[in-house]
């Protein structure tokens, strides 16, 4: 997993609440378990007309938001069905952090395991960031995980993250990486296993 320490990028305002995962990535794009290639599917029904042309009023189709890497959105972001593809679409598009008053629990868990930082701030602070991004298109924000802060223009806010989750993001540790940190202990345990116990490394018995 790509470590997250500090991200500096254009702040992208998505002034909507209760954005569900089907809106983040529609069901017709859930045909692969690869984590890449979903950037063009992000918010597909909002970004494109039925003929495939871009909707001129959607934020990701407007300069200078196209290349933004920090999304600010309304409460209850990524509610609805559980799909890791929603996180993959956001990260593949280039987002590294999402700032919102609240997140769906499953999405938040998936995000943390994929290197996407979900930042929770009070609703009035999120509103201030949203207004700034709308009033000053192209304004940059800085999300500092080490200092647990979000800054943009004259705005500066603090957030908190569980110490274990913070460590995993800072060091780029997913579940497999965490397990491999105990590789020596696992190997030692396997070497002490009684010979009569099943040995999965040999495959099924004919």
Structural class designation: alpha/beta
Order of helices and strands: EHHEHEHEHEEEHHH
The averaged pLDDT comes out at 90
Uncertain segments: none
End-to-end separation in angstroms reads 39 Å
Strand order in space, largest sheet:
4-3-2-1-5-6-7
Helical fraction equals 25-40%
| Coarse shape | globular
CATH architecture level-2 label: Alpha-Beta Barrel
Q: Main β-sheet: number of strands, strand sense, barrel status?
A: 7 strands, mixed
User: Please, how many helices?
Assistant: 8
Just give the CATH class: Alpha Beta
- The name of the CATH superfamily reads Aconitase, domain 4
In total, the number of strands is 7
- Total number of distinct structural domains: 1
Strand content: 15-25%
What is the radius of gyration? 20 Å
CATH names the topology as Aconitase, domain 4
Short key terms for the protein model shown above:
206 residues; Aconitase, domain 4; alpha/beta; 7-stranded mixed β-sheet; single chain; globular; 17% strand
Q: How is the secondary structure organized here?
A:
Elements: E1 6-14, H1 21-24, H2 44-47, E2 70-73, H3 84-93, E3 97-100, H4 105-112, E4 117-120, H5 123-135, E5 140-144, E6 149-152, E7 155-158, H6 163-171, H7 175-180, H8 183-192
Parallel strand pairs: 1-2, 2-3, 3-4
Antiparallel strand pairs: 1-5, 5-6, 6-7
